Amino acid sequence: MLNFSFSTVLMTLLTSNILATVISLLFLHGKTMARVGYQVLTLIVVLTVIRLLFPFELPFSTNIYMPRFLSRAVASFREHWIIFFSIRLSLWNIFELIWVGGILVHIVRYLHDRRHIQDHIQKYGKDKTNDPGYQAVLNDLCRQHGRENRFRVIELSGLKIPMISGHRNPCIVLPDHLLLTSGQRYYVLTHEAMHYFHHDFLIKGILRLLSIFYWWNPACALLHRQTNTLLEMNIDKKITQNAPDVTVQYTECLLYIQKMSLTDAPQPPRFIERDGCFFAPSKETELKRRITMLLHASHIWQKISSGIIITLSAAGIYLLSYCFILEASYLPPEISQNYTVPTVENTYAIKIDSSTYEVYINGSYFVTDTSLVYYPNGIKIYNQKGDLIDEN
Fold first, then answer.
1. How many helical (H) and strand (E) elements, i.e. helices and strands, does the chain have?
2. In which residue ranges of the chain is pLDDT below 70?
3. Where are the alpha helices (DSSP H) in 29-160?
4. How far apart are CA 384 and CA 391, in angstroms?
5. Share above pLDDT 70 across residues of the chain, in percent, rounded to a whole number
6. Facing residues of 88 across strands?
7. Closest C-alpha among 222, 212, 238 to residue 26
8. Alpha-carbon Rg for the chain in angstroms
């Protein structure tokens, strides 16, 4: 039986932030990041995404009760002490309403951005699709991948670095001030086309929708930036194939594009930066990570051992977050003085028929129930003759 509650959201929040922090720490140490490899980093991202998509408690989950001061804070957060037009609400209920409201606001913003990107490119861009220099490269690429050449090429003012937009009608957008050699043109167009061939827009779309749903979770912002970098690393590796000469030429092209982006070209609109796939990152640290991944060589045993350790650690965090759920356990003094909490030691049940139990606490009849799922695991179950037949 799946259960969605404050506790399951809390576990999702903790787990996703821990996993996102693990990736961030690996990114901070270039040699470790390169030794681990982008495939392992991608796996951690996938685990984080799955955890965010499935914020539920599973039947085998075990509750771990928080300390008293934390339990009291959670109890206050969930207590229905706010009265609004005769409706009693808790701070948790108000948070849920704000959560849903924020989702609606971000959906409207997302749809507005999508429409605004196309309008901006169409209004200010110059169509260069039929330019022989662009057509020759794109025709060859599409032929290699068995695809029809559906790419448009647009030169746009106010853009610092090349990008691709549109998962159905792909449009490669180039800064109109960018002067490229034939080799650089090949790498730029190949990089952007590979984003389309590898369905990176679908991945970015899923993460964008996830960040819309969890707009309040800082892990989603981290996850979005980390995934963008990993997608770029994946394309970098696909193009260079670890060939030394190609790697050097490709790295030089990355540095050239980055250098040209530092000129006095106007800053592109924010809505374009949010949804495009870019050839070079806007931040120097991201470029450094990509070049480190391209140029750093590790011994095979180092990559394997590091990958295994990080993978097992991330998988352990992920699995443990479903095995154990942090739960508040607090009763106000005025209630706890007159209330006995059922435990394995003071509670047992007598099975009356296939779906009915009489529950006894401290030897006294407590209630007749149809399920023991909400009682502690391990309480003894007897038949009407007094024989032990099972344990919950």
1. 14, 14
2. 1, 30, 263-284, 297-299, 329-339, 392
3. 30-36, 38-53, 68-78, 91-124, 132-144
4. 15
5. 90
6. 83
7. 222
8. 28
